[in-house]
Specification:
Helix 1 packs across helix 2, helix 1 packs across helix 3 and helix 1 crosses helix 4. The chain is 42% helix and 22% strand. The chain is globular.
Length: 303
């Protein structure tokens, strides 16, 4: 190994990699929790140590040079190796203290997880809980989170997945909306109403129509990619929407539409990286989440 030839340090390499992947110095600085001038100095230092230009300014932005594009794959391999080292080291930690990042949908993070986090703080005050509310699937392989609550089973062999139950979702609408539009008594009447749905409602049409409805894309007059926004839109009387039972029941201005219709069931998976699962603090959080979610009404199929 020619140690003298490695003139740059990991911080410089990380700064270059983050800038290349995030697309700008400002975005990379936010991702790394640094100031933009500090990040810029690290990238400039890497260019000086390597004796090459990695970026060039095009208008107000940055683009990789030919050399930068050629070297990017090597730096990405470094980043993946560093990530594997971090995962392996974290998995060996036996301290019940430190940060644990949990990612879940915005609805679960808002309505379901706060009391579970309070319980975790009571039983393990040394653990710092970071709750990431996102409807995107965070990449556990790249340490974007330590534990994920998902509704689809992961396929990566390095991830541990535990099915903790099923959530039951029903139709809900604001009482004043139903006062004006009428309370449907048949699937045909419900199918004629306005609906609130996700960003791409066509993806859920087959599941909803399997309940006996005949909805089309035209039913969805209001859409949002954010679950908590959908709840507020329903509260404002903009239509019918489908919500997990414990969320719809917790909203006093909402009532279940056609109580005998449904529910729609979907699985709840608890996921962690295989190596991180050997960490005592992550194991404690994982087991506490599994117990709490398994006991909650949201993940039990009614008899």
């Amino acid at each position: 190994m020619n140690w003298q030839s490695m003139a740059f340090d990991w911080n410089q390499a990380r700064a270059f990699l983050a800038t290349a992947e995030e697309g700008s110095l400002s975005a990379a600085a936010r991702a790394l929790g640094q100031t933009q001038p500090t990040l810029s100095r690290q990238v400039a230092g890497l260019e000086e140590n390597l004796g090459v230009a990695l970026f060039e300014r095009v208008g107000r932005g940055l683009e990789l040079t030919d050399t930068g594009r050629e070297l990017l794959a090597h730096f990405q391999a470094m980043g993946e190796a560093a990530n594997r080292i971090s995962i392996a080291a974290s998995g060996q930690s036996q301290a019940i203290e430190g940060r644990v990042c949990i990612t879940a949908t915005d609805l679960a993070a808002t309505y379901q997880l706060p009391p579970i986090v309070r319980h975790l703080r009571e039983i393990a005050p040394g653990i710092e809980i970071e709750l990431n509310a996102s409807n995107d699937l965070r990449d556990l392989m790249r340490r974007e989170a330590d534990i994920a609550i998902r509704h689809v089973r992961p396929e990566q062999p390095d991830l541990i997945a535990k099915l903790v139950g099923e959530a039951a979702a029903y139709f809900y609408a604001a009482s004043d909306f139903l006062d004006a539009a009428g309370r449907p008594q048949t699937p045909e009447q419900l199918s004629a109403m306005d609906f609130i749905g996700p960003e791409r409602p066509e993806l859920i049409l087959s599941s909803l129509n399997a309940l006996g409805l005949s909805l089309t894309r035209q039913n969805f007059k209001t859409i949002s990619a954010t679950g908590t926004v959908i709840v507020q839109l329903a509260r404002c009387g903009l239509g019918v929407t489908m919500l997990p039972e414990e969320i719809g029941a917790a909203e006093p201005t909402l009532e279940r539409v056609m109580p005998g219709l449904g529910p729609l069931h979907f699985p709840v998976w608890l996921v962690a990286h295989r190596e991180l699962h050997t960490s005592r603090r992550i194991r404690l959080v994982f087991d506490a989440l599994a117990a709490a979610l398994g006991e909650s009404r949201a993940v039990r199929r009614p008899a």
